[in-house]
Amino acid sequence: MAEPEFTATGVRIGRRLRSLTRAGQIRISGGRVELLDSRGVEIDSAPARAVRASRPWFVPEDRAVADLAGHRYLLTLGEDEPAPGEPGPAAARRFVEAVRRAAGGGR
Of 18, 31, 76, 98, which has the fewest Cβ atoms less than 10 A away? Predict the structure, then answer.
């Protein structure tokens, strides 16, 4: 199995006003974006070409929005003081860039 192109742990994943998990995972591997809960169970996944990821200007720097096959998720990828070795606020920007690379270019 190939090494994942992007991985983030400790991700808060929400849909509309509902929090699905506070310690989820995001994995981009083999051209597919996967959202997983804290136990590694898949919440949603889609081919990277079908995923739209962005960092809206009105949300804090550690958040991104992802549309997977018509379902919109709010992702919080960092905290103010991340643990050593954990992704910080720049993780949201790296996630958006990784989705675009996996989809085969810029959008």
Answer: 18
Place of tokens 């949603």: 44
Contact partners, residue 79, CB within 8 Å, separation at least 6: 10, 62, 88
pTM over 0.85: no
Question: Which domains are seen in the chain, by residue range?
Answer: 6-103 (2.30.29.30)
| pLDDT per residue rounded down to tens, the chain (107 residues) | 566 789 999 999 999 889 999 999 999 999 999 999 999 999 999 999 999 999 988 878 889 999 998 999 999 987 544 555 555 557 899 999 999 999 987 54
